[in-house]
Amino acid sequence: MFGDFFRYWDELPEQGGFSLFGWIHMGWLVGIVSVCLVVSHRYRRVDAATQDKILKILATASICLESLKDIYLILIGEMGISYLPFEMCGLAIFVELGFAFFHREFLGEIMCVISMPGAMAALLFPDWTRYPLFNYMHINSFLIHGLLVLIPVLVLTSGRYKPSIKRIWQIFLFLFTVVPSVYVINRIWGCNFMFLCYPSNGSPFLSVYLRHGYVPYLITYAVIVILCILVIYGILDKIASFCGKNVVYINRKN
Q1: 252 pLDDT more than 70
Q2: Contact in structure between 56 and 101 (CB atoms under 8 Å)
Q3: Would you say residue 247 has pLDDT above 50?
Q4: Phi–psi pair at 24, nearest 5 degrees
Q5: Is residue 30 included in any domain, yes or no?
Q6: pLDDT tens, 185-211?
Q7: Structural domain of residue 98, as residue ranges?
Q8: Would 250 be classed as within a structural domain?
């Protein structure tokens, strides 16, 4: 069982991982939701200075986990371009770290509208199903994505930051800056960060790509992303109303 702990995916049996929404997957999801509920409840009860410390500790923990993963991959000779932080979740680590230490409005908006939903989607549909429960990459992946969800949940439910659709331009500015840069990286290195070159297997966009080609796929992808952003703003507004908080926490001096 523990003999597979440090093994890479290509050294593991094909059927030795976990299934989507099987008991292992559901156990992690229930555990992460439970931690978010308990920690957010306690987080709201402490003073602002303690909340700041908690955010910094959690954000630092996420980048430490990412660094340890990279060290592990280097040691086993499997570190490659595909593991560089050019996916949304990789970028989210730095966005949330920046918000925890500098509390900038722009970073808060990106964190709540893009980083958190992206991490949630990764937890619901993980691409590390090849790894069994007692495996380093399995545990590390769930912990990192769990932290990427927990941090904005704490910020939102405590009223430390409230996203506003009036700031949606910041989201598009971020995307219009990052996406073309990542596209160039994909072309230079032959990667597919953010699925900008082609959809993943099992993606709902795969049929569009196969039937109509790259440009219709990219247009469909962009339209769906925009619609999702609008829906996310609506959901976040409901969350803010439910929590009864209207505090916008930005540009606070440390």
Answers
A1: no
A2: yes
A3: no
A4: -70, -50
A5: yes
A6: 999 999 999 999 998 776 788 889 999
A7: 2-243
A8: no
Q: How far apart are the first and last CA of the chain?
A: 46
What's the structural domain count of the chain? 1
Residue 172 tokens, joined: 């598009």
> Has residue 248 been placed in a domain?
no
Please give the C-alpha separations between residue 41 and each of 13, 103, 143, 154, in angstroms, as whole numbers: 41, 21, 20, 9
Contacts of 35 (CB under 8 A, 6+ apart): 146, 150
Query: Is residue 251 in a domain?
Result: no
What average pLDDT does the chain have? 90
The C-alpha torsion from 245 through 142 and 111 to 191, rounded to 10°, is -160
Crossing angle (nearest 10°) for helices 88-102 and 116-124: 140
Is residue 253 predicted with pLDDT exceeding 60? no
Q: Summarize pLDDT for 216-234 with one digit per residue, the tens.
A: 999 999 999 999 999 999 9
Exposure class string for 197-232: b at 16+ Cβ within 10 A, else e: bbbeeeeebeebbeeeeeeebbebbeeeeeeebeeb
Give me the pLDDT at residue 9, please.
77
Kindly report the three-state secondary structure assignment for every residue of 154-178: HHHHCCCCCCCHHHHHHHHHHHHHH
DSSP state of 152: H
Buried b / exposed e along 26-35 (16+ C-beta atoms within 10 A): eebbeebeee
Structure tokens at 185: 């990286």
Q: Taking 70 as the threshold, does the pLDDT of residue 245 lie above it?
A: no
Q: Is residue 205 a contact partner of residue 221, using CB atoms and an 8 Å limit?
A: yes
- Count CB neighbours of 137 within 10 A: 21
